[in-house]
């Protein structure tokens, strides 16, 4: 089974549909299987005092203005849905509240996504699991006990899912990657496991691809110097093309683990062992 390569656009569009479309096109041309966004109801996710706090941004001087500036509206999501259908690439989003999850349901998307921040909200998990869509569950900032609770909910609802090993730092230090958690989670929970990476560079993702992951998610950007908290942990277009190409080569190179003599070795063996006959 081929690794699902997911280009996480998240909020790197900076509230602009043109940037969102440019990133979708980048993902499609690189060979990604899907793009992912993030959806929030600002007044439900953040307390009023947080939103009223001062913050300089391209949209104003408060947190509220910054958060609202980063959100796409209904008109933009209709355009995203239409554009992804035109390019024949799947899209989905991680909702950060129940209202946003109910909103996304209208698009009849192929996947749901549980952000690491939401894995501890059991009421939210039950809402997502009740939809019965294949769900990717990120495990950043989470203990085994918290992951167990989430897995139990999805299994009780008979909702298909896979876990995603994740470390929620932006960017993540390579020394924190702890990729051996991938086979551990697969064995412990008896389920598919993917990798959601926030590191700088591609080497850690290559290593993850060689550990039988079922999905690979990386944030993407047009330019890492753009405004935004996720940009520095994102992959630019050239890097994304390199990542997808390398992952597909790694998949081919992994083989099936059965030792055999390949056809091309036969004549070479006869030549190099001729002195032994």
Key terms for this structure?
single chain; 277 residues; alpha/beta; TIM Barrel; two-stranded antiparallel ribbon; 10 strands; 42% helix; 18% strand
Descriptive notes:
The protein is α/β, with parallel strands linked by helices and 277 residues long. It is built from twelve helices and ten strands. The strands form two sheets. It has an eight-stranded parallel sheet. The protein has a two-stranded antiparallel sheet with strand order 3-4. Helix 1 (17-30) runs parallel beside helix 5 and helix 7 (122-129) runs parallel beside helix 8.
Structural class of the secondary structure composition? alpha/beta
Q: Give the strand tally.
A: 10
Strand order of the largest sheet: 5-2-1-10-9-8-7-6
SS strand fraction:
15-25%
The backbone outline, from C-alpha atoms, is globular
CATH topology: TIM Barrel
CATH architecture: Alpha-Beta Barrel
Please tell me the total number of domains.
1
* Average of pLDDT: 97
- Summarize the helix and strand pattern as letters: EHEHHEEHHEHEHEHEHEHEHH
Radius of gyration: 21 Å
Unreliable parts: none
């Amino acid at each position: 089974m081929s690794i699902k390569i997911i280009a996480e656009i998240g909020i790197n569009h900076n509230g602009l549909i043109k940037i969102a479309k440019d990133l979708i096109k980048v993902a499609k041309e690189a060979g990604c299987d899907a793009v992912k966004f993030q959806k929030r109801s600002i007044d439900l996710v953040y307390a009023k005092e947080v939103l009223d706090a001062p913050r300089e941004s391209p949209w104003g001087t408060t947190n509220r203005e910054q958060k609202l500036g980063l959100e796409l509206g209904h008109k933009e999501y209709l355009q995203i849905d239409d554009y992804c259908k035109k390019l024949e690439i799947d899209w989905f989003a991680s909702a950060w509240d129940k209202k946003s999850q109910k909103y996304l349901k209208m698009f009849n998307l192929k996947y749901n996504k549980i952000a690491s921040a939401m894995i501890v909200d059991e009421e939210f998990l039950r809402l997502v699991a009740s939809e019965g869509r294949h769900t990717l569950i990120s495990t950043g900032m989470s203990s085994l006990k918290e992951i167990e609770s989430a897995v139990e909910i999805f299994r009780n609802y008979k909702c298909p899912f896979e876990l995603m090993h994740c470390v929620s730092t932006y960017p993540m230090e390579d020394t924190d990657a702890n990729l051996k958690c991938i086979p551990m989670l697969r064995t412990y929970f008896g389920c598919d496991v993917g990798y959601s990476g926030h590191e700088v560079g591609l080497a850690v993702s290559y290593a993850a691809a060689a550990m039988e992951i079922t999905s690979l998610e990386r944030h993407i950007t047009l330019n890492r110097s753009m405004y935004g908290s996720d940009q520095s942990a994102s992959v630019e277009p050239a890097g994304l093309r390199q990542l997808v190409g390398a992952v597909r080569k790694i998949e081919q190179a992994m083989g099936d683990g059965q030792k055999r003599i390949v056809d091309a070795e036969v004549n070479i063996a006869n030549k190099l062992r001729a002195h032994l006959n």
